[in-house]
Every structure is written in C-alpha cells, then in structure tokens.
C-alpha cells in the first residue's frame, strides 16, 4: 500500500492533524481531508466521499458526532478498493451505563464500530479516553486561559491520554501489520484529578489557575446565563458525569499493546504543551 496515499478524515482535528504530521514525517503520502483545508471533505455531503477515497488503500475515519454515516462510507470505501480502516471511537462505548446519552450519540458510534467490524476489511478501533489536550486546545482550554476551571466534576479523576500517543497508535495501525482486528483502549499511565491537573498547569504556565467544583445545577445555570439553551447545557453536564463518578480513572493497556511502551504521563504533556502566560 506504500504507493497509495493514506486518507485521514478530520485532518484538522486534535488527533487527525497529528496523524497527518506523523505519517508525512515517516515519508508516507497523505490525503488530508476536512471541510476546510487541503482536500475538501464533508461528512454531510456524500458527493465529496468518492474523490477522497479514489486510489486509497488505508484510511483513518474520524466520524461526525451525532450521525450514522460511517456505515455507508465504509461500504463506499470497499467499492474503491480500500483495504484497511482505522476508526476513531471512544472509551465507554460498550458500556450502556457509562454516560447519560440524551442525543443517541453512543448508539451512532456503536453502529460505526459494528460497521467496520462487519466490513470484511482490515480494521482497527482506537478508543481514547479524555484527551490531555482538552486543557490546552479543547473543552477546557478557554477556562484554563481565563484562570478558572468551573465544572461539576467534584474530586473525580481521569487517566488523561496525550493526543500524541493516540496519533502514534493510529499511524502504526495504518502502516504496520499486526493491528488488524484490534480494539485499543487508550489512556494515560495514571489517574489525575482536575485539581492536580490545574496545579501542574499553573506551575508550567507560571500563573495561577484554579479549579472550582460546582454542583450540576449551578453549572447548568452558569451555561444558561452565558446564552446556552438549557437542554444543551444539560448535555454538557452529562459529558462531565463519567469524570465526576470516576469512570475514567482506570488505566487501559492500548498504548502498551500497540506500541510496546508505556503511555506518556500528564506531567510530560504539561511540559511540552503551550500555555497562556508561560512566556509572558
């Protein structure tokens, strides 16, 4: 498959752009597909799928949340001669009690996993937990930049996984043999509470960042005051529930199995990330 480009969907996202970077650094041709960027690709516009898949033999599939589009995409991929699929999924997908799912998102992701398993292709599934990069470029980043992280997470902890580890696992599954039929649950090496996380970031950024635990009611009320519809605010609160309940505090062995090494620690991530105020 070396002469064929590797398709990376979601190529501008946290994992996608890192996968693109790793593949290119290793000399692999890459088709970086996203709604905006090098190669136009839109999950909601099936007319863009064919051009993305033309000449491809391996693909990293980062699905669009809240949709059931992976199954028809995989069927089209087979027709184009794709042989290998690596699917971005998530921790807890096989646990109905993991999180309250008001939107049906979990069912959609579970169907995506079933689609790749039933495809007849070489498949690998990546199931990362909470990204460490949520603090630097994702869900928590604006609050960290403002100096106060306010969440209904109590003293819950998670084994935050570095997106660089996720990308390395995905790149290996796309380019190496031995990963077909594997589901890799990905985590960091130890659980870190939000209080511990912001303490480490404060030291690295040389500025005070506080974690303020809120009740669910106060968190929802704050989001509503910021202009979010109450139903949407409740969904955000649901997302935090596994963190609050400690459901992501366990260590998974996916990085070790895929790469033969331990995952990067949260402390290592903090040292290499860019933080507001770090150089000010």
UniProtKB/TrEMBL annotation:
Domain NAD(P)-binding: 10-176
Listed SUPFAM superfamilies: NAD(P)-binding Rossmann-fold domains
Tree of life domain: Bacteria
InterPro entries per the UniProt record, alphabetical: Ergot_Alk_Oxidoreductase, NAD(P)-bd_dom, NAD(P)-bd_dom_sf
Pfam family, one: NAD_binding_10
Protein name in UniProt: NAD(P)H-binding protein
């Amino acid at each position: 498959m070396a002469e064929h480009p590797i398709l990376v969907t979601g190529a501008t996202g946290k994992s996608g752009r890192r996968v693109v970077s790793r593949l290119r650094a290793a000399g692999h041709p890459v088709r970086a597909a996203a709604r905006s960027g090098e190669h136009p690709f839109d999950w909601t516009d099936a007319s863009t799928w064919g051009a993305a898949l033309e000449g491809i033999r391996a693909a990293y599939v980062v699905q669009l949340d809240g949709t059931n589009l992976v199954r028809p995409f995989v069927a089209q991929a087979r027709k184009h001669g794709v042989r290998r699929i690596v699917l971005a999924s998530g921790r807890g997908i096989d646990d109905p009690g993991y999180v309250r799912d008001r939107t049906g998102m979990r069912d959609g992701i579970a169907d995506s996993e079933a689609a790749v398993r039933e495809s007849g292709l070489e498949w690998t599934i990546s199931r990362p937990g909470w990204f460490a990069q949520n603090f630097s470029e994702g869900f928590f980043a604006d609050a960290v930049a403002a100096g106060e992280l306010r969440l209904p997470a109590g003293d819950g902890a998670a084994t935050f996984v570095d997106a660089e580890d996720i990308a390395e696992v995905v790149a290996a599954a796309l380019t190496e043999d031995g990963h077909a039929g594997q589901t890799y649950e990905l985590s960091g090496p130890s659980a870190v509470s939000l209080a511990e996380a912001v303490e480490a970031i404060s030291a690295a950024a040389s500025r005070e960042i506080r974690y303020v635990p809120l009740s669910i009611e106060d968190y929802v009320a704050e989001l509503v005051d910021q202009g979010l519809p109450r139903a949407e605010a409740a969904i955000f609160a649901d997302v935090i529930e596994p963190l609050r309940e400690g459901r992501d505090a366990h260590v998974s062995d996916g990085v070790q199995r895929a790469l033969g090494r331990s995952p990067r620690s949260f402390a290592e991530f903090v040292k290499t990330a860019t933080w507001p105020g770090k150089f000010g």
